[in-house]
Structures are given as structure tokens and as C-alpha cells.
């Protein structure tokens, strides 16, 4: 019987009728409350050209969050490394680590975080950088190390900060890389759950100890919508389901308000597609979520739980995160 840490993944979701500035301030407020509720980390994800997500300049927002908090770890979940030069990311996160020592995490993904047209606008040679992702992770790690002080090219700030790296993934490819480099592995089961168990098995079997990590460390991400009753939570979840419909159809409009009935909004094809994406989603009262989540944690043997919560009303979102913190004091894996 053991308790595990629990953390927040946030995208600075823009809701229907609100502004980008309001979305950013809601993220900052959520981080303040997450710290109060005992969450270990508050991570934000890089996305581009999406009306419903305001976290494109991820490192800038992380500084905004870190400034408002005191102890919670703040990081990226993740930075899409092929979009950037490893040196620039080392400088950005090295600066954050210099300003907020021992609180900064750097999660790395290889997906574009956007559509193909926008990905090409970000970086024309992006596909070449995708192929170099493993080498670029190693180079980034080197820039952040104390050993890099003897090199001609240094990240200033950055060298010697030893910002911990995390590999993000939604397939078995990322599992091989995380295992080979001996880095913690964060799986995007909150939207791509199909290969979760296969990827985790590969990662644990092939893991090689590293300077950063002696043993495998698995962090699956799930969606949580908690409320006083199952019925209320199901009602609140209709905003998330509409948002994921937008992922399927390419309509990335701001997240809409909840509705009483999804029937008129989606067809069977869309409903099935959304349900497939949301297979690792827990909706309901504390009792309902506690039972289902405990089963999930036993099945995955997770070392830490990362949680996304897509709820239209900010106060209801805070309430859901508070309720999960109460659940996690009793859930064991």
C-alpha cells in the first residue's frame, strides 16, 4: 500500500466567451490552488494556432506561474523540441531554473503541437529535426550540465542548472527513447490511450539507469472531472467532449459551455472517436472516481499521476482538482 504524487497538466484553455488574458490568469490561479492542494507539479503544454489553447509561449507562461507560487514544481508537458534549437530551450529553462531554483522541470515531445501547415511555418526543416530528436535531447541535457562549462558553446543561464528532463510520448517509440536515456516517461493517455500498457512495459523492461534516474519512473496522464454527484460530473464533462470533438473534426474553437444532452451535437462516428480518445478519463463523484482510479493505478503501477481537467467553469475546475487531492490521500497503488 502506497501513496503516489499527483500533478496538473494545463493548456491555458480558452473558454467560449472569455479572452486569452483570462485563460492565462485562470491557469495561474489554478497553479496557486494546486500548490495549496498538495499537487507536486504544474506543467503546461506547447500548442500553436489553436483558438482554444493559450500556452504557445510555454516558457513565458511558466515564469508567470512560478512567480505566483512558492514550492510546486513548474514545467513543460511538454516543449516540442523539433520546433526549437536545443540551445535556445536550454537558455530559456536555464533562466527559469536560475530564477526559481530546484523547481523547474523540462518535459520534451517530438510532435509539432499543431497542424502541418503551422508546423512548416514554425520550422521548414522540422522533419529533419524530428529524426534528430534523440540526439537533440542528449545535446540539450549536455547544455544544462555542469560538464558543459568547458565547451565553447554554453547556455547562459543554463550551464550547471541540471534541469531534469522527462520524455513525453503517445506511442512505443518514445518508450524506447526514455528507457535508453534513463529518463522519466510521461504517457499521453489523456488523449491517446491505446498504446499505454505496451509502451510502459517496453520502458520498464529496457530501462537503463542514468545520472538523473536509477529506476524507471512512469507518469501516465489522465482526464479527471470530479463533482458532488456522478450526474453533475457527467454534465460538466460535456464541455470536454465537445472540445475533443473539435480535435477529431479540426474545429479548435474555444471550449463551449456544458449541455444537458450530447445527442443532438454528435453522431455515432464522432461519439466513438471521442470515447476512444477518452478511454483514460474518470468522471463522477469522489467514490466513483476513487474506485476506478485505484484500478487504473494498480493496472499501470504508476509512480506519479498527471491530471488534466477540462471544465468550462473555473470554480468547478478548482473544485474538481481539490476533490482529486482528497481522493489521492486515500487511493493507493
Q: What is the strand tally?
A: 9
Briefly, what CATH class? Alpha Beta
Query: Please, what is the oligomeric state?
Result: single chain
Indicate the radius of gyration in whole angstroms. 19 Å
What is the second-level CATH architecture? Alpha-Beta Barrel
CATH superfamily: Luciferase-like domain
Give the uncertain stretches in residue-range form: none
- Bin the strand percentage: 5-15%
**Helical residue percent band:** 40-55%
Look up the CATH topology: TIM Barrel
What count of helical segments does DSSP give? 12
Spatial order of strands in the largest sheet: 1-2-3-4-5-6-7-9
Q: Return the domain count.
A: 1
Largest sheet: 8 strands, parallel, barrel
InterPro entries: Bact_Lucif_Oxidored (IPR050766), CmoO-like (IPR019949), Luciferase-like_dom (IPR011251), Luciferase-like_sf (IPR036661)
Pfam families: Bac_luciferase (PF00296)
Protein name: Luciferase-like monooxygenase
Family: To bacterial alkanal monooxygenase alpha and beta chains.
